[in-house]
Design a protein that fits this description.
The structure is a single chain. The protein has about 350 residues and is mainly alpha-helical. The chain has a single domain (about 10-185, about 235-345), classed as Up-down Bundle (Outer membrane efflux proteins (OEP)). Helix content is about 70%, strand content about 10%. It has helices at about 15-85, 90-125, 150-160, 165-185, 210-220, 235-305, 310-345, and strands at about 1-15, 190-200, 220-230. A three-stranded antiparallel beta sheet has the order 1-2-3, with helices on one face. The longest helix is centred in the first third of the chain and has 67 residues, at about 15-85.
């Protein structure tokens, strides 16, 4: 025997469970898109920071090489004076020691540049090659002005722009659909169903065996029905579903509030750091100017034999260290300004 059965069911009403499920899934997709944008923003900020680190390392290497060149020049002059008997041998030995120290500083600065390039290449997921060169834009701090807006203004702008805020808000919306879906479990459902049946019997009838299509056609029957399901007892399952959905909504609201608070804290930190970095940069400029003049005078006095090498070396180290500090302050300031620009929705360009 062969039995052929076909059934079909269509839900006519289910408390908008299907509609709300579709809306919830669409909301979740939109939230996921904003989460992707938030991740892209974080990656962009990180790459900019790593790029600035490369440029910073290049300038630090340049400072170390200049200091070494200055020491080598002084060593040449001192060697001639020692050979002529004008200066004691100890002066030459002191400068040779300083020269070795400066050579080590150049090596260290070169290694730091290599590491900075490596970090940048890895963040961009490209093969590392120490020959990698970055095009250094005009990173004059004077071209990177601080915004005149206060924290509250920046925060209000960021609330409308930051994708993590939009994702958190959509999380609440999705949870609201979840509550509606759970509540629909208390409502009746109405559906319509249809079925069709036929069969084939491989037996002779009155000396004949009807063919397959004839038997199927002659034995065919169908029916239709309405299905009404009224939830009376569900072992508290529906109530538990509603409680879980409401809890999820509350968690989403807490997550959104935490995201807002974190954003405000990040902006407050960025604002404070940017202003502190500008003050540090301005102070470093003054310090470099003063120590440059002090080193120039010390060099003249050392050449004239008016001061010993220890005093000369101190003036030299103070000057070149101040240059290194200025470079640090310069790039710290530029990056802090770009972070504030990011929260204001300005392009992340150097």
């Amino acid at each position: 025997n062969i039995n052929l059965v076909a059934n079909s069911n269509l839900t006519l009403f289910a408390g908008q469970q299907i509609t709300n499920s579709i809306k919830q899934n669409q909301t979740d997709i939109e939230a996921a898109k904003f989460n992707v944008l938030a991740t892209e923003n974080n990656i962009t900020l990180n790459v900019i920071n790593l790029f600035i680190n490369v440029v910073f390392a290049k300038e630090q290497l340049n400072i170390a090489e200049n200091q070494l060149a200055t020491t080598k020049e002084q060593l040449t002059v001192t060697t001639k004076l020692v050979d002529a008997g004008s200066l004691p041998l100890a002066n030459k030995l002191d400068i040779q020691a300083q020269n070795a120290t400066n050579e080590l500083e150049v090596i260290n600065a070169s290694n730091n540049l290599r590491i900075a390039k490596l970090n940048l290449a890895q963040s961009m997921q490209i093969p590392f090659d120490n020959r990698l060169e970055v095009i250094t834009p005009d990173l004059n701090p004077e071209n990177y002005g601080l915004t005149q807006k206060v924290v509250d203004e920046i925060f209000e702008i960021a609330l409308e722009l930051m994708p993590e805020i939009k994702a958190a808000q959509l999380g609440i919306e999705s949870a609201e659909f979840g509550v509606k879906i759970a509540k629909a479990g208390f409502l009746p459902t109405l559906g319509i169903g249809a079925s069709a049946f036929s069969n084939y019997i491989d037996q002779f009838f009155m000396g004949e065996r009807p063919d397959f299509s004839t038997q199927v056609r002659n034995n065919f029957s169908n029916s239709a029905n309405f299905q009404l399901n009224i939830p009376i007892l569900s072992n508290f399952r529906n109530r538990a579903n509603v409680q879980r959905a409401r809890l999820q909504k509350r968690l989403s609201e807490i997550q959104e509030e935490e995201t807002r608070n974190q954003l405000r804290q990040d902006i407050e930190s960025a604002y404070t750091n940017a202003y502190a970095a500008r003050q540090s940069y301005q102070a470093s400029q003054i310090r470099v100017s003063s120590l440059e003049e002090a080193f120039r005078i010390a060099q003249q006095r050392f050449d004239a034999g008016a001061i010993n090498f220890a005093d000369y070396q101190l003036a030299q180290n103070n000057y070149f260290n101040s240059q290194a500090d200025l470079v640090t302050a310069k790039y710290t300031y530029i990056f802090r300004v770009k972070v504030l620009d990011f929260y204001l929705g300005n392009p992340l360009k150097l």
